[in-house]
Write a structure and sequence with these properties.
Elements lengths: L15 H9 L5 H9 L1 H8 L15 H18 L4 H15 L2 H7 L10 H23 L7 E8 L4 E8 L13 E7 L5 E8 L2 E2 H15 L3 H17 L1
Helix pairs in contact: 1-2, 4-5, 5-7, 6-7, 7-9, 8-9
Organism: Hyphococcus luteus
Protein name: Toluene tolerance protein
Pfam family, one: MlaC
């Protein structure tokens, strides 16, 4: 693989990829995403969102993790090339179910409030979040229909936290995605198992955007269990839309 390219953290509300992610959030989420683009993204940057972005110091590539992600991308290629749109969406969902750790992401996006849920709330929240996040991943990945992705390098943020970069393989001349860097955040468990825990494009990350939304909803509704109830209600509304 090519040597990893490290970048300074950049979160831009004007990024074309921020627009892509906004468009693919389920009904009820787009308005909140537009609001976040004006407020929360820059608040995240000021509060230290750089901790979630690329390291600015050179780091060794992780070949095993690169191979893991490339295997997923190779599996996704015929799915994205499918002629029937609904079949493609269904197959993307199956791929997400297999490789994305929704439980870990679901806890991450709650921030400090993950420790404040009751057992009853946990039992309701995690299945709802799984459905909601899967829909977001499905709709976002479908934007690359007909394309093949290839891994270009990786950065080890820690032993368990690896960023893998990819891009469109042989993009058509004039393609709006020709220079897009598509990222995959991989978690390595103590047993060495790998899973995807976030995805993004040009430093706009799905889970980070979701965390900003979710914690704002909880905080604006009193925090604690009351705020979590409001979040659960909001997720149900978005799924019904």
């Amino acid at each position: 693989m090519a040597a990893p390219i490290t970048k300074t953290c950049r979160i831009s509300a004007n990024s074309k990829n921020s627009t892509i992610l906004n468009r693919h959030f389920p009904p009820g989420g787009a308005q909140l995403m537009r609001s976040l683009a004006r407020r929360s993204v820059f608040r995240l940057a000021a509060a230290g969102a750089a901790a979630f972005c690329f390291a600015t110091q050179p780091a060794a590539a992780d070949q095993a993790v690169e191979d893991y992600v490339q295997g997923i991308l190779d599996e996704a290629a015929p799915i994205l090339a499918g002629a029937d749109h609904q079949t493609m969406l269904d197959n993307i969902e199956a791929l997400v179910d297999e490789y994305v750790d929704m439980r870990r992401i679901g806890r991450f996006v709650l921030g400090q409030y993950a420790r404040r849920m009751s057992e009853e709330q946990e039992a309701e929240y995690y299945p709802l979040f799984h459905r909601y996040a899967k829909k977001i991943y499905r709709n976002t990945l479908s934007d690359y229909a007909g394309e093949s992705l290839v891994v270009t390098g990786s950065v080890d943020r820690s032993e368990r936290d690896i960023i893998v970069n990819s891009k469109i393989k042989n993009p058509e001349p004039g393609s709006s995605y020709a220079n897009t860097v598509i990222h995959w955040r991989v978690y390595r468990s103590r047993d060495g198992d790998l899973s995807i825990v976030d995805a993004g494009a040009d430093n706009v990350w799905l889970a980070i955007e979701q965390r900003s939304q979710f914690t704002s909803i909880i905080a604006n509704n009193g925090g604690g269990e009351k705020g979590v109830d409001a979040l659960i209600a909001e997720i149900k509304t978005r799924l019904e839309g």
